[in-house]
């Protein structure tokens, strides 16, 4: 993926055809000596803990941003949960009440951040 001077192009083309191979899965240019390792490390099918199957090279991103079993913290109590349980927990957790130290009223946890604006 570099510019090759015209005088060197034929030698370069011969070198590449002997030493470089295009991966049939991702179309990346890979040295022939590393192709087996590339396929085993990037393209072998693996199963995530959520039972979804994908290429190994995609697993890390899936676990970080798409897996329903990825770790997540409740915004109200900081309890670690799995992402697929977070919404139901936060609905319940945010509906709890705490006594406001300023006005003495019971305020839902989900409203505590906004409460100081209306607190007497």
TrEMBL record:
Signal sequence interval, chain numbering? none
- Molecular function terms, GO-annotated: zinc ion binding
Q: Which GO terms describe its cellular component?
A: mitochondrion
Q: Does the keyword Coiled coil apply?
A: no
Instruction: Tell me the GO BP annotations in alphabetical order.
Output: negative regulation of innate immune response
InterPro entries given for it?
A: Innate_Immune_Apopt_Reg (IPR051986), TRAFD1-XIAF1_Znf (IPR049439), Znf_RING/FYVE/PHD (IPR013083)
The keyword Hydrolase appears for this protein: no
- TRAFD1/XAF1 zinc finger domain segment(s): 78-120
UniProt keyword list? Acetylation, Metal-binding, Phosphoprotein, Zinc, Zinc-finger
Which function does this protein serve?
Negative feedback regulator that controls excessive innate immune responses. Regulates both Toll-like receptor 4 (TLR4) and DDX58/RIG1-like helicases (RLH) pathways. May inhibit the LTR pathway by direct interaction with TRAF6 and attenuation of NF-kappa-B activation. May negatively regulate the RLH pathway downstream from MAVS and upstream of NF-kappa-B and IRF3.
Its recorded name reads: TRAF-type zinc finger domain-containing protein 1
Organism classification: Eukaryota, Metazoa, Chordata, Craniata, Vertebrata
């Amino acid at each position: 993926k570099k510019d090759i001077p015209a005088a060197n192009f034929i030698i370069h083309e011969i070198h590449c055809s002997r030493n470089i191979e295009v991966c049939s899965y991702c179309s990346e240019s890979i040295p022939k000596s590393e192709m087996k390792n590339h396929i085993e490390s990037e393209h072998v099918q693996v199963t995530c803990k959520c039972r979804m199957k994908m290429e190994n090279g995609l697993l890390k991103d899936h676990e970080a941003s798409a897996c329903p079993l990825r770790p997540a913290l409740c915004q109200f109590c900081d309890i670690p949960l799995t992402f697929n349980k977070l919404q139901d927990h936060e609905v319940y957790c945010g509906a709890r009440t705490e006594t406001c130290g300023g006005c003495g009223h019971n305020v839902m946890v989900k409203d505590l951040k906004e409460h100081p604006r209306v607190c007497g």
